Amino acid sequence: MPPRTTKESSAPSTMKELKDTLWKAADKLRGSMDASQYKDVILGLVFLKYVSDAYAERRASIHDELAAAGMDEDQISQLINDPEEYHGYGVFVVPPTARWDYLAEHGKGLAAAERGGPKTVGQLVDDAMDLVMGANASLAGTLPRIFNRDNVDQRRLGELLDLFNSARFSRQGDARARDLLGEVYEYFLEKFARAEGKRGGEFYTPASVVKVLVSVLEPTHGRVYDPCCGSGGMFVQTERFIDEHDGDPTDVHVYGQELNERTWKMAKMNLAIHGIDNKGLHTRWGDTFTRDYHADVQMDFVMANPPFNIKDWHRIEKDPRWVYGVPPAGNANYAWIQHILAKLAPGGRAGVVMANGSMSTNSGGEGEIRARIVEADLVACMVALPTQLFRSTGIPVCLWFFAKDKTADGQGSTDRTGQVLFIDARELGFMVDRAERSLAPEDIARIADTYHAWRGKPSAVEKGLSYADVPGFCASVPLADIKAADYALTPGRYVGAPDAEDDGEPIDDKIQRLTKELLHQFDESARLEGAVRRALSRLT
Please, which of 14, 264, 328, 363 could form a disulfide with 258 given CB 3.0 to 4.6 Å? Predict the structure, then answer.
């Protein structure tokens, strides 16, 4: 029997079509494994399809370039496999039997004689993952090898290859292709996070929350660090921010650490898909408290969404990171905060997602730690967020922003030494569905613009923005007032109530009108009560 031919790949015409096509692929395995397992299978295939398509297009470009230079086919064949011709363009090398056209052709065990016997489609894909990791040192130990297991339906896996074959992922011929696949990957991460519920929060931070962190901090240069990086969303949004503001991505170097092996692998793939150098994620996963892989590196920006209120963590009382006090054994919140502060370079800035309790707790010495951090003038801004942003937890959350230097300098023209900006954003956002809220672009811009205006940053000056307290939303508060409030950092305590809207009606007229309306309602209530009593009397 001749080998079956593959369908010619064609790009879906819209992003929705692309997402729908790939989510159908995920559904094909949903019945045979749980959410965490099929997540790894699908994301692994998406990555393999992407690197294969990008390699094929780069290979075609090299051929055309060499042919245009007057080389014949023999000369071209000697040069076209040079790894530097791929790695130098941000493209991974994909050996022949790992390429998608090979997998699609042989995926159902057809034409297997030349391999010395039939292989399952899962074996073919596992072998392809090994080959790609072997050809690209930066991917070593990253890609999943889980496709030939008993719980993976091989027939459905073969159907997945067919379905994926109808979508083309590349970036050589389409300037937006990398962004498209990156968006698909993030879409899948979000969908899988929802499917996995609480565990999904371990690898995924809602995009709108990440955008607030990035928009406030504006990380356009230097070292960007996430000590619990999950699937790498902070880094991806940083790259997108740089692109949107015409920055140079080579000016930013990312550093991260992740405890969970599978999540670490997702982060490596996510960064690779977005063209972000992932060497800063270290060569393996690991606990930040047990061993800080970047202990000797100071960071310009830190962004993190640590696990909330974790009780079982590696605590060493004499750890040099506990500058402001030893965190309690039963809660790691202030361990994360102090680790992040220890990582900041002079002039560095940080944004951290925390449970609301961190703003006012006094248990286990946490109140004293918070007081020392405030007195050290490291807290720049506190943001109270609306509820239901995290599908994985019902705990209300807030954002802490730190700054090593609040004087007037290149980061802002306004000296904010000895002050903290409080923003109460609990009324912002919209409901995506009955269980989840998201922040709209204008909500994110309002928070970021308020902070930038407060600091007198160039981005605010360009927009003509100036800062003023807004009752019910924001207030700039001196440290003395925070000390008087026992160092509580809850924004609602400081921003006050919003001003009542003035509808232009004189107060005396309004009281007279409302009194008349209320008396009318009393009369109507009495009339209805009498009617009901008469109706009941006729029934007895």
Answer: 264
